[in-house]
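Fig. S4 source data, part A: sequence.
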Amino acid sequence: MQLPKRKRQIQKPTPLPKEFLHSVSKLFAKQFQAELAGSTFLVYGDIYPNEAVLCVSLAHPKSLRAASLHLSADVPPSVASEPEKVTEQLKEMVDVAASWFAQGFQKGKGLEPVLKEIEDADANWQEIQWEGKPLFVKLNRANYTLEKAANDFLEKAGFETDEDEFDEDGNEPRH
């Protein structure tokens, strides 16, 4: 499974640590406990040499639908010597995601109001300013949990899965 990326990437990403992703999922579950109505948050993320990508996805286990908010930020060239800058960017990305989901939940509980929030959203990356810094967001209905389960099933059955699920610009292929 590959998340959409904003920049053209040559190298494979380094996944964000599972502990970080799990703690963000737990944080969202706790913060929005009253609004979830059976839905769950899942968080995915990758680091490239020049970009950090984070996805916070809300899905209901009895539905194939999901609402996914993707965030992208530039990674400074000095990341190896200053990892705290990437950590700070990731925290800002989590804050943006929390703010966006809070806005969606203002219109009701569960997955439906959040899906309604993305109905007319532009499918391309949009630049926003957060605390004076540029971040990029993209909304879609990708259900990465379902995609990962399908890929795992196919791999166990001996099929090769297509890791290039997105085009070179990180957009979903049009069918």
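Fig. S4 source data, part B ends here. Residues 14-156 form one domain.
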